[in-house]
Amino acid sequence: MSAQEKGKKQAVVIGAGVSGLSTAHALLEKGYTVRVIDRMNRPGGIISTERTPYGLVESAANACIASDRMEAISAQIGVPLLPLKKEARARYIWRETRPTRMPLTFREILDFIPRLIRFLFLKSFKPARVLPERRESVRNWGTRVLGAPITERLLLPALQGIYAGSSETLSANIIIGPLFHKKPKRKGRLKGSVAPQDGMGAWMIRWKEYLSSQGVEFQFGAEFKKEEIAQFPDTKFYFCGSLGETKKLIPGLPFEKAQTLTLSTVTIFYKPDPQYLKGFGVLFPEDSRFESLGVLFNDCTFPGRTDVRSETWIVGGIRGKQLVEKDSSEIISAVKGDRLRLLESLGIKGSLLEVEPLEIKFNRWKDAVPHCDLDLEAALQEKIELPPNLFLIGNYLGKLGMAKIVDYAFEVVGK
User: Which of the ends of the chain has fewer CB neighbours closer than 10 A, N or C?
Assistant: First the structure.
């Protein structure tokens, strides 16, 4: 440590994923000398982007939700964010025998209208009537408040596609609860899903480069030594790794029963064809009998991703718990079976069903996301006692999604 650094506030960030980079950025703005430690050899955590001859391959998230702070950071580090293409507005959910943009029947829509009016009224004037109850599942909350059809056909498929959890135990307090908190009006230019032109991984790399240029020290391929916490009581330590990593480093946290979920992505490139379905992608509910949670149509999402047909199939979570642990060839075979069934449902016949892919890319991440279930809810309701120089930041704390994690990191550092 230099003489100049000795006079500044010191902080160590463990983890260089989204949580870690956000925390380092916030600490830098507060005047700290910051050191970031990560056992991987690059920034981004599970987020990375591979450039292939046929287009970009995202290992995990392919976009994030726009927010004021995300826009400000992207401008600061020199990475413009792009909105979705118009054709991505079409989003599909499988119902019975085919994908549909509206998975409700006309009668179900009519029955839902009075429930929707009642919900909006109570949310504004008597919110306690529609707030999630303690240890209430999303399915129970949705059936109680919105009705069974909208819950089973729209709400649960959408949330399972995002959280990869069990419809029986997904926590309404963690997932639905934040919707009842008043939010300040956004002043940002962009809305909805956004992403950099060169992919999410390129964004992480550029973010790290910016922080390095401002004096943040990065140590990759390194393990954090817990002894430092006691050795340097005046230094602040921010644990920004996954739930599994954090439990190993900090014993005694109330997350013993909390689970993490493994996810795999299979990105497949094909020659373009006008018969392929256009849109953001398709979600497959639990009763659909698909192995996959959903599929993203990358050629329809953001400009510059690919010039051919590109699909990313997502496997794992609770539903695919057994499949996701198998050999990559078995997972790819299951995905091809799902793809064939999807194409046949669209009335596609002939050689297009048998065409060989141009390239296949496989990614698997163990303990990728927390299971946002009732056990995690119970853990979050317990008081977490930590030394005064130790802080936790991560998606297992009920802050779900990249934009919310970034905001939470700045909030913690600000306190």
Answer: C
